[in-house]
Description:
This protein has helices spanning 5-33, 41-51, 81-84, 89-106, 110-139, 149-184, 193-226; strands spanning 58-62, 69-71, 76-80. The protein is mainly alpha-helical. It has a three-stranded mixed beta sheet. Strand 2 and strand 3 form a beta hairpin. The longest helix has 36 residues, at 149-184. The chain is elongated, with a radius of gyration of 21 Å. It starts with a helix and ends with a helix.
Amino acid sequence: xxxxxxxxxxxxxxxxxxxxxxxxxxxxxxxxxxxxxxxxxxxxxxxxxxxxxxxxxxxxxxxxxxxxxxxxxxxxxxxxxxxxxxxxxxxxxxxxxxxxxxxxxxxxxxxxxxxxxxxxxxxxxxxxxxxxxxxxxxxxxxxxxxxxxxxxxxxxxxxxxxxxxxxxxxxxxxxxxxxxxxxxxxxxxxxxxxxxxxxxxxxxxxxxxxxxxxxxxxxxxxxxxxxxxx
Length: 230
């Protein structure tokens, strides 16, 4: 199990998709960086948030490349240095996407509420599933009762899959909101929205790839531990 080549065969489609999506994000982001906008990423996000009455949501700059995210616990929108101060279609597109998450939070958007509620289980499942599976596999021959760790490990990883599936509509909706808000507020010219669309659509494929990998990994676990039984 530790170096099973069949695992990589199982998740190969997800790995190929993830590689393509990352390359697509890189190329579309670089192209959209060349399209000038009147507002920076931070200013665009601030305008969108204030227009929605979300003056309580702060905006901070964080380190890292494309490390942008919205923190619903602290009500903070954190933008990477490539987005925070940049005046480009790439920057305002990503900033508007994260602002979209803040709007979802303020409106109690159901999939976001479900996703936030699933975070603890997904975090536990991601950390504990492999330990349970390995321990169950190694220890059950000597202590049969510990064989229960295998189905528990699979169930724990299933929480990761559920989280990823819930996350997809959350991300798609945030991008749809961003595209609409940028046009409605006149932040990006209609002709230049093609660049924003390409960046956000490419980013969406990274979430699809992550979900596919989680699903295929779960199927691998089920096959690995139960597929050879009569």
